[in-house]
Q: What sequence folds into this?
């Protein structure tokens, strides 16, 4: 049985008549890096806010580290580090004072923790700078350091790479890798920059219009995104009939404009070319595609709403 | 909750806001007493100086609310509460912590300002007139709980509303506007008048005390008056603390 450190059961959140989350069942496994994928307004931040205790679900249940009662969740959240939307900072406090403030608040008596956090996010040079004077990237890094002060078992990060420059993104990614691999911290992060998530996530959840469309492991996703052949043919109906005799129905898909995609790892282009000529179908265009995470998400959305 | 309170004290003592606020108030009162003394005339006496506080005890409530505003203004906008709540500290504990921290800070500022007021008045002004130092000192226990209620309500209103300015306006209406309205309405509705008299702004109203250059009659001169002040303040603290604990308990951020 999988060990989930975060689980939601039928979580629903409404703002007036607008349903922000609709019966969401989320499962985040221990030690995983869970990428929550969704468009702007899909409900990612709302879901993370509910998990962080900043917002409340109208229906459903939240289970964190096996606890689901409100009072228990409050105490269990001491094991969670969060950065939801922009990091919350006091503009007139220095970076060092801010970390000290949160160390006191989280009951971390060791002064060395401040130094560790500064070094973890490479902000040693900025220790005496006021938070108001930091760049967005530095604020994001300080936000991560704040989240890490209490040595959490779980990190929840909402759009953490927003506003980071390219080298900042690389640094941030390697930092998350280190936290996940060296400290076995479970990371739940949301983003709409899918290429970034693709490089770090071990599990994915696809959220759209408040509904969790699918949860999938990176391994399963790799299999699903394996090579496919895309061809434009003279008679898609005829060719589809021929394919039905050769392949299971779920291994190919007919799109408008006589476009056909054959989803099959290591698909043999020659074999499908021959099949076309045997059935009197002309292939006007043919290429081998690898489905990106973006395409997978778009197709998933399309299939769910069509 | 203790960790939250400790962290807030760390923040207050390591940032300038409260020092600047207290410093400005101390400077203003000292300058006021020096100016009054230098200008001379009938106002260059301690009685006139003290009467500014004794005649307007609601100033303590206003200053309490200002302290809260200085400490917690922008909390929602800056997103600081998000870190605290997601770190496992409940909204009730945060509300209680904010009340305790701001009450402590306000008390320290009040002590500093009153000390500066009394010392500068005694130093630069002639000790005469109907309003004595005793009247001012006796007023402190009478108004302390009322000021505390004003402070707790300010923490509540700042926490309730998205915009700080809305919270401040509501505070003003509740503490200074509504009592007058209720008092006038009470003249037509039996029972309401007596209830309205318990509200601090009416308790210290014109008819309740008379402090001027020729006499000093305060509400807290009598045991009954002092008791009314204490009961009104204690009830205010209890009511606003209860409302805060209920309203802020499950509030979305």
A:
């Amino acid at each position: 049985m999988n060990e989930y450190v975060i689980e939601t059961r039928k979580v629903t959140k409404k703002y007036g008549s607008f349903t922000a989350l609709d019966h969401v069942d989320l499962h985040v496994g221990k030690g995983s890096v869970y990428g929550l994928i969704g468009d702007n307004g899909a409900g990612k931040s709302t879901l993370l806010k509910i998990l962080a205790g900043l917002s409340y679900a109208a229906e459903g249940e939240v289970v964190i580290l096996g606890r689901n009662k409100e009072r228990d969740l409050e105490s269990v959240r001491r094991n969670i580090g969060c950065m939801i939307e922009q990091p919350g900072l006091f503009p007139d406090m220095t970076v060092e004072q801010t970390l000290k403030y949160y160390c006191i608040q989280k009951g971390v008596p060791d002064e060395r923790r401040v130094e560790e956090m500064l070094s973890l996010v490479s902000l040693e040079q900025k220790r005496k700078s006021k938070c108001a004077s930091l760049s967005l990237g530095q604020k994001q890094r300080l936000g991560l350091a704040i989240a890490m002060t209490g040595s959490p078992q779980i990190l929840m990060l909402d759009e953490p790479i927003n506003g980071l420059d390219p080298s900042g993104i690389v640094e941030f990614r390697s930092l998350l890798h280190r936290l996940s691999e060296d400290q076995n911290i479970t990371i739940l992060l949301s983003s709409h920059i899918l290429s970034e998530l693709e490089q770090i996530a071990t599990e994915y959840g696809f959220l759209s219009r408040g509904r969790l469309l699918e949860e999938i492991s990176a391994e399963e996703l790799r299999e699903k995104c394996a090579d496919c052949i895309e061809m434009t043919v003279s008679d898609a109906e005829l060719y589809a009939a021929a394919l039905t005799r050769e392949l299971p129905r779920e291994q190919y898909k007919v799109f408008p404009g006589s476009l056909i995609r054959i989803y099959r790892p290591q698909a043999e282009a020659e074999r499908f070319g021959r099949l076309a000529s045997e059935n009197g179908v002309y292939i006007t265009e043919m290429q081998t595609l690898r489905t990106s995470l973006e395409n997978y998400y778009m197709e998933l959305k399309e299939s769910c709403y069509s | 909750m203790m960790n939250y309170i400790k962290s807030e004290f760390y923040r207050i003592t390591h940032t300038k806001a409260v020092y600047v606020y207290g410093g400005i108030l101390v400077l203003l009162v000292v300058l006021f007493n020096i100016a009054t003394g230098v200008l001379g005339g009938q106002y260059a006496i301690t009685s006139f100086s003290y009467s500014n506080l004794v005649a307007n005890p609601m100033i303590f409530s206003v200053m309490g609310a200002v302290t809260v505003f200085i400490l917690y203004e922008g909390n929602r906008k800056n997103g600081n509460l998000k870190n605290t709540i997601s770190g496992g500290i409940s909204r009730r504990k945060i509300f209680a912590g904010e009340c305790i921290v701001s009450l402590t800070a306000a008390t320290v500022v009040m002590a500093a300002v009153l000390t500066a007021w009394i010392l500068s008045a005694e130093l630069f002004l002639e000790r005469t007139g109907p309003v004595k130092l005793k009247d001012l000192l006796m007023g402190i226990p009478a108004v302390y709980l009322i000021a505390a209620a004003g402070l707790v309500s300010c923490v509540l209103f700042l926490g309730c509303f998205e915009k700080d300015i809305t919270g401040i306006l509501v505070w003003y209406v509740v503490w200074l506007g509504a009592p007058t309205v209720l008092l006038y309405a009470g003249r037509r509705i039996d029972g309401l008048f007596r209830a309205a008299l318990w509200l601090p702004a009416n308790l210290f109203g014109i008819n309740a005390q008379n402090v001027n250059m020729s006499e000093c009659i305060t509400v807290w001169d009598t045991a009954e008056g002092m008791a009314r002040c204490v009961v009104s303040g204690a009830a205010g603290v209890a009511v606003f603390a209860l409302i805060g604990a209920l309203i802020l308990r499950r509030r979305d951020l």
In short: The mean pLDDT of chain B is 90. Residues 91-124 of chain B form the longest helix (34 residues). The two ends of chain B are 20 Å apart (CA to CA).
